[in-house]
Amino acid sequence: MKMYVFELGSLKLDKNLVVSMSHVARVNDPRCENEMVEFPVPAYLFETEEGYVLYDTGCHPDCMGENGRWPVEFQNQVPYEGDETTTILYQLEQLGIKPDEIKTVILSHMHNDHAGCVEYFPNAEFIVHKDEFNACIGAYAQHRYMDSYIWKDTDVWIKKKLNWKFLECGEGDYQVCPGLTILNLGPGHARGVLALKVDLEKTGTVIITSDAVYCSENYEQEREPGVIYDTVGWRRSLKYIKKVAKDSNAQVWFGHDRKQFDTLVKAQGGYYE
């Protein structure tokens, strides 16, 4: 099995949303200012004996601008930076892979920077947590525009006949194929988060946390993220990831840690096996 790492542009947002209470006014600093930080938008492709498996899809290339898919207020809060070379379609094209060759798409969750390009993979089976899917559909039905479940993204793919497979709370982890196991984390950062355990012959085991763990501060210091749906669920997920990592002697790759991500080999330069 080969694993390719894609960098699909970047986002900027308030540091308090990444690590809760990062910037708090105090007596000796009563005018403490917030800080915008930049982090990568990743996705991962696996070339397996059973076909291509994609983990997350990034932001839609038309998300920004006056007529962009994201509301202007949302663009101001979480601006995306990227170009034609940072789209999922371009990255796949560089490897000679067409979108309709993707057999399986695993969505860690359905927020704007993870499920923005669902529409491009008509032949794939989409694996997602059932509660997360329902939350996305609920946001669509209620026309909740200022939401991480982007209404215009959903509006496009909901009209297509896509093949969905749902994982539910309590049913445990799920093996996609030999070497690829979904860690069914349930609620935490979002309504239902799916991390991924990857067993590679040469590299060893890697756990890709997605937004279950944004960055090293969330993991090592156990500091909660600012964007969180279920605090108790998030701590349960963190504990489980740490247990699996210890039991399997795994590397842990965080969802949006710029320092760590810059050390990874990107698809244009090679792959992991």
Automatic annotation (TrEMBL):
SUPFAM superfamilies: Metallo-hydrolase/oxidoreductase. The keyword Translocase does not apply. Keywords: Hydrolase, Metal-binding, Zinc. InterPro entries: MBL_superfamily_lactonases (IPR051013), Metallo-B-lactamas (IPR001279), RibonucZ/Hydroxyglut_hydro (IPR036866). Its cofactor is Zn(2+). It comes from Blautia intestinalis. Belongs to the metallo-beta-lactamase superfamily. Residues 40-256 form the Metallo-beta-lactamase domain. This is N-acyl homoserine lactonase family protein. PANTHER family: 102 KBASES UNSTABLE REGION: FROM 1 TO 119443, QUORUM-QUENCHING LACTONASE YTNP-RELATED-RELATED.
